[in-house]
Amino acid sequence: MNAVLASAAVVVRRVIAASAEDLFDAWLDPEALAQWMRPGTINSTVARVEPRVGGAYEITMQGQSGPIVHKGVYRVIERPKRLVFTWISGPTENKETQVTVDFVRVDKRTEVIVTHEQLPESAMPSHRNGWTSGLEHLDEACQKGLIG
Amino acid sequence: MGEYQSARLDGVFNALCDPTRRAILARLTDADARVTDIAGDFPISLNSISKHIRMLERAGLLRRSIVGRDHVLTLNAGPLAEAQAWIEKYRRFWEGRLAALDAFVTAKNAKKRKRK
Fold this sequence. Notes:
The complex is a heterodimer of chains A (148) and B (116). With 148 residues, chain A is α+β, with helices and mostly antiparallel strands. In chain A, 22% of the residues lie in helices and 43% in strands. Chain A has 3 helices and 7 strands; from the N terminus they run E-H-H-E-E-E-E-E-E-H. Chain A has a 7-stranded antiparallel β-sheet with strand order 1-7-6-5-4-3-2, sandwiched between helices. In chain A, strand 3 and strand 4 (66-78) form a beta hairpin. Chain B is built from 5 helices and 3 strands, in the order ααβααββα. Chain B is elongated. At the A-B interface, strand 1, helix 1, helix 2, strand 7 and helix 3 of A face helix 1, helix 2 and helix 5 of B.
């Protein structure tokens, strides 16, 4: 059995009219994160960031029913192409998940691709490719409405 | 409860990450089917079909009832809904964050341009 495929992934993309550098930097700058890492029901966000591989971050979103803490460690920092970090929070049941952000130039704009995976620690990082292809199929299945 | 739920979710996702198993589930959305019928639909051995079916059973995605000599399979969509909920939650979250990142960076760049 392939343990590498033992999880789910969400892939979300958006083309933004800005440079890859500007967009990349917004992920590692605490002041920028405080501005845009703030979903609708959140009153304020405080971010602490150690922007180096192995460095930790903590993003605390002040919600109406108390703070929601998100934390993790940077695994890949490849400005301005790719950022990979672990993501642990109440909503992930304090289980380690992984977020990969890819920045791809499209003419003068940049496509930002977020892949959030329920990745078991043992599967990292050499099995990345196997993972991604399996998950693309899963994603397709979800799109087609096979799931749910 | 949380631990139990995520272990079950892993099983569900694992079961879904295979085209043959997804095809078996798709087949069962139309109607219940016998194991032998399903085996006839796929160009692989009965033995490997049985393995796929056991994985789907373990993930709670289908139920088997034995009627005389026939093993009849029924789709159980409950765990699929749970997996879908995880995916939907984070899809909405990241779509919202990317929209906010867009607004933040483009507004900042517009200000920069004005100052020049």
